[in-house]
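Standup notes
- HV: blocked on the assembly model, inputs below
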Amino acid sequence: MSVTDLEPYTTEDGREIGGVVMEMKNITLRFGGVVAIKDISFDIRQGEIRAIIGPNGAGKSSMLNVISGFYTPSEGQVWYQGQPRPAMKPFEIARQGVARTFQNIALFEGMSTLDNIMTGRLTHMKSSMLSQGLWWGKAQQEEAKHREVVEKVIDFLEIQNIRKTPVGRLPYGLKKRVELARALAAEPQILLLDEPMAGMNVEEKEDMSRFILDVNDEFGTTIALIEHDMGVVMDLSDRVVVMDYGKKIGDGTPDEVRNNQDVIDAYLGVAN
Amino acid sequence: MFYNTAGQFKTSYTKDQSLFPVKQDAILLGVVLLCAWIIFPMTASEFTFKTMLMPVLCYSLAALGLNVLTGFAGQLSLGTAAFMGVGAFACYKLITIFPEMNIIVAILLSGVFSSAVGVAFGLPSLRIKGFYLAIATLAAQFFLVWLFEKWHWLSNHNPSGAIEVPNIDMFGITVAGPNAAPVTQYYLILAIVTLITIVTINLTRGNQGRIWKATRDMDIAAELIGINLLKSKLTAFAVSSYIVGVAGALFVFLNLGAAEPNFFDIPLSFKILFIAIIGGLGSVMGNFMGAILIVALPVVIKFLPDAIGLEINPATVEHLNIMTVGALIIFFLIIEPHGLARLWQLIREKLIIWPFPH
């Protein structure tokens, strides 16, 4: 399989990979004189796990922020579901079905695990403030209906026992999992994971890898992730984009990328 | 033992999401409501109504309004008193322009005016946060009090700028003004406070509450999961100012009977902020605890030395009161930033497992 091959296909483990769902076209991102991303193009296909890797400061997180709408690219465009995405506020992009987790955990510390995950559902909730204030009719039904979805996510990620615990009291690994739960609860089209395994021990990494694969397998969610652990990236992802100093230096299957001379140079340095 | 939750199973999400999943909480609230609705009115004297019960309710409501904004949505405000003033003056104008209007309707409508003013002064919150926003609301505080003094139309051209509540009847009973009986006024205030408190509890535990709390805890993450921060902050300002405005109208119309513009000056704002902090930011119940403490404290300080035979002059009482409140604020900010409500929460957690250690 090569990158340019856009026919739908089935992977070795039997997952359906569809057409292009999101495409970055010549994205450049500048902060004043600093060029964080320089003319990068790549696509994300329906149902695949797409990894973005690169050494520190390569611009991976900036790229993810462009996708999730936190940054507006200085040049170039993001195409989503076959159309160029107009300039939008981040919350509007979230409502279109792009959910994400954060490199530094960004949970709402004052709320319980359950409430945190419930916030993931808010793009689906429609009851008026009046109805909510009276806790009657639509608001009450909605609350129970979405609770059911959230409970499924809680079961899926095996965090039943911390349902009512304030997230401030949770250990790091569980916080990461709750954050994933919050993003999953939104039932996104594309799930962006910014270093889902940073700072975890081997067992926690194994758990997280299993969850990522299960999410992709069971819900067919398209996943784009940034990760530093090469073993994890190469095992999980269908295709990998490699960035260095804001430029794309490689793109392809894990095997192609592993044998790419530019990528090897970027990671190991070049002998002078 | 008394708070044992074992055996209280929930069989549906609706039941688990009910207001009191724990039976004992409901019983406790029932006792409090029984006191408020039946026992206090039967036993209290006119003086107690005027100086204790009604102010506690009005302060609680104002603090509840502030808490929606500061405790739940995380937007610091120092303009509470001015928004109370907007409510009171709006109610005064409504009553004098439409004398047939029912007083309850007028009070509930006056909140709409303070809500609009609150949203207008809340607009800067989109750009500025924390202390800087507090300063912006401080501008509202000074500007509005100045407006109450200078715009004589508001007080129907009373030279002092003060509003005096006329005698107002409702269904043949005098409910406001010099001839009203305190007990009827108490019941009116209690009814409105109960109603608004219930609505606020529902708002803060549902989707809107989660939106506000998300805005408070981490606004960037909130925006990236689909929260419109503009809407979230402005609804917080609107709801908060509505409640605060109704509290102001209630305070002046049903308790004080008259108010000068400078009554709504910054000391009142601080008093309400203190109630919210001591009671507990981000809590509904805490406002009531804080208000009881702040209103009861001067009375206790006044009567306690008498009771044990110490003679103390009134000025010293006043100073002692200020010192105690100051000490309490510092105590709570350092030891328990979540206030009395959190203290109660801790006691409750201990009670649930008592007498066993785990």
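- HV (later): unblocked. Chain B touches chain A through 33 residues (CB under 8 Å). Chain B is about 70% helix and 5% strand.
- Next: hand off to the docking folks.
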